[in-house]
Specification:
Blueprint (H helix, E strand, L loop, with lengths): L1 E6 L11 E7 L3 H11 L5 E7 L2 H12 L3 E8 L6 E7 L4 E6 L8 H8 L7 E5 L4 H14 L2 E5 L8 H4 L4 E5 H8 L5 H10 L4 E5 L5 E5 L2 E5 L12 H12 L11
Parallel strand pairs: 1-5, 3-4, 7-8, 8-9, 9-10
Antiparallel strand pairs: 1-2, 5-6, 10-11, 11-12
Helix pairs in contact: 1-8, 3-4, 6-7
């Protein structure tokens, strides 16, 4: 659940700012991306965990209202529903801190519930708000099923190249890209370095500057179209939802045709 406070400017360390409005909105990277894909016509099912609390109930109802199959979302009797604390300033930029809650209890059993539904031609979309061992198990299962594997490596953390070898499309922002390559590189060099790890296509999102992507033909830049930003919260998730719907048309390797 997203708890969003609007402020005139983002606080600095040690600074307290007065907010103008506090809103509560359904969130979570996985749920946001699932809803975005469903609204674009995708047939979507979400696997995850929420707490046995009011936030959890509200999130499941939101999934149902947006035509997302929520039968794979478990109510955890011990952990609270994950929450994000978000500040949004007048220009639309934000700061976010996430308390994972029940997301951190995702296990192999949850992964198997997802994997059992995957078939050739399906798309598995994942983020890093759940434990890495679960991500690794899901990637392996999806690869074996012939599904397209789409990984949004966010929030930023390091991943081993063995995991990335079975990812068809990797999406990161600039900060997340630097975390994965573990060195200071230009955007083009970072995209190329991540492509070498195994993904067929690597996309680095650049906010208002568009994005850079790298595939077997090289590094390319996609210019943005102009918008007036009101709130950038969830912009990357909307991008991922659209990519998930479109991704079956991306080039594939790993022996899957």
């Amino acid at each position: 659940m997203d708890l969003v406070a609007t402020v005139a400017h983002l606080p600095q360390p040690g600074e307290t700012v007065l907010g103008r409005h506090l809103g509560t909105y359904p969130g979570g990277k996985g749920a946001n991306q699932a809803v975005a894909a469903a609204r674009l016509g995708g047939q979507v099912a979400l696997v995850g965990r929420v707490g046995n609390d009011n936030f959890g109930a509200a999130l499941i109802e939101n999934l149902k209202a947006n035509a997302v199959d929520s039968s794979g979302v478990e109510r955890d009797p011990e952990a609270a529903t994950g929450a994000a604390l978000i500040y949004v300033e007048d220009g639309g930029q934000n700061m976010i801190a996430v308390a994972p809650g029940a997301n951190a209890t995702i296990s192999g059993a949850d992964v198997q519930r997802a994997a059992s539904r995957l078939t050739r031609g399906d798309v598995l979309t994942m983020q890093l708000e759940i434990p890495i061992p679960a991500i690794r198990e899901a990637v392996t299962a999806a690869h074996q099923a012939g599904a397209f594997v789409l990984l949004n490596a966010a929030p930023a953390q390091r991943l081993d190249s063995g995991l990335l070898r079975h990812v068809d499309a990797l999406v990161v922002n600039e900060r997340e890209a630097k975390t994965l390559v573990e060195q200071e590189l230009s955007l083009d060099a970072a995209a190329s370095a991540l492509h070498v790890y195994g993904p067929n296509i690597v996309i680095i999102t650049l906010g208002a500057a568009g994005c850079v992507f790298c595939d077997d033909s090289g590094v390319h830049r996609v210019e943005p179209f102009p918008v007036k930003a009101k709130d950038t919260t969830g912009a990357g998730d909307a991008f991922m939802g659209a990519l998930a719907v479109w991704s079956p048309r991306l080039p594939r390797e790993h022996g899957v045709k």
